[in-house]
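Q: What changes when phosphoribosyl ATP is included in the input?
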Amino acid sequence: MSIRDLAQTIAARAQADAETSWTARLLANPDKAAEKFGEEAVEAIIEATKGDAARLTSEAADVVYHLLVMCAAHGVTLDAIEAELARRTAQSGLQEKASR
Ligand SMILES: N=c1c2ncn([C@@H]3O[C@H](COP(=O)(O)OP(=O)(O)OP(=O)(O)O)[C@@H](O)[C@H]3O)c2ncn1[C@@H]1O[C@H](COP(=O)(O)O)[C@@H](O)[C@H]1O
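A: The predicted holo structure follows.
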């Protein structure tokens, strides 16, 4: 599944029943969505430091999903994130750091 398709599924789940949809449950509780994103990020860090690529792949998928849900819970869309990324393409990360 592409990240764009996943974002569309998450947006559609805003109308879903929290009894049957994990996404709907998190969208109804933005603080829980943020907490789950943090948990998944830590789990991904642990797998990265262990050097287990297969487990990191699984945790990375959890991180991407929960990041999109956390953002959706605050009205931040994938389009907005992509626009911010596009704005940054003209400048390297090191140039940006030096300009602060
Ligand atoms: N990509 C995901 C996805 N990744 C992870 N998860 C769920 O995130 C939840 C939290 O993960 P954890 O490993 O923390 O689960 P846990 O150990 O039970 O959590 P704790 O109770 O211990 O806190 C689990 O229920 C996972 O199944 C996801 N749930 C949904 N999606 C996507 O969202 C779509 C819609 O899902 P629903 O909204 O549930 O219909 C799905 O078809 C998928 O494409």
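Observations recorded in class: The domain at 3-98 is CATH 1.10.287.1080 (Helix Hairpins).
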